Amino acid sequence: MLRNSLFVIAFCGLLASCSTKQELESRETDGVIRLGVSKLLTKAEVNSLADLSADGKNIGIYGVQMPNKPADMNDLPGMGWGNALSMDNVRSTAVSAAGAISWNGVYYYPAEPAHYVKFCAYYPYADGSKFSIDAPMAGTAPSFRFTLSGTDDILYATPVVGRRGEDPVPLVFNHALTQLKFEIEDINEVLKGEKVISIVLQDANTVSSMNIETGTFGAWSSPAELKVPGIEGKNITFVDRKPLAAGDGIMLQPGLESFKIRLETSNGVFPDVEIKPTSKINDVAETVFAAGHSYKITLTFNEHTEMFASATVEEWKFGGTGDAIVQ
For residues 251 and 175, what is the distance between their CA atoms, to the nearest angstrom? Predict the structure, then answer.
């Protein structure tokens, strides 16, 4: 089964705030929290370490203390929350070209050798303006609250654990949303010389929350129209039968069976175009647009100006197809 793993990123840095007086006095180098770097595994809106470096002040990090390491790492979700935090929504200050993340201050592991710290991280950072975050409760990780604009790439990291003398494995980030990218194919040159004015996602839910440890969403609400970015004012014109890329990727709620769009060209408006996935992953049919998948939506016109829509998965590299008919 293909997984939604997206990219591995690492933390290193000097951070401040010891959990005990002994740590403040000793400043032992083996007690400093550091997380290692590894290779990049993803294609997405955050396509590379260079992309992340350009937005290096936008990662949030939590470290929650645990008396011991679970025998089964699958038991990690929920463990430790409600205990002391070694790192409490620490914001990154920079990301190097090699992937090293720095932050202000120095943070230490607990002095007790057997005590572990579980690390969770998310992107983009919740500063209380566009995005906010709820403090953790007993048994529950922080919730990241957001309102989608269609351009936000929301990520969460699979939790890892470490302690004094035992560094954690690198954090693996996962894309939480579904991405759609559009192209228009005019096989019979019905639209030759015409222009693409807009593509709009109709009734797209925009408000929700996400558990930063598991990527699980709360209830979705506030349906709105979201325009595919990168189209308005660019005068995209049909010149031949080749598929024409239309705008940039748009990030949306995952897990839906279909989306409805409205395409506006200088030749007319085509509302309520329904797109459904017909993808197969390891010969198993997809029934929803999945988190971590990027779908290329091809809108095809025939001689009667009917429009056919198909979907294939690209960029995040999870194969799939889909189709719809609009007239």
Answer: 10
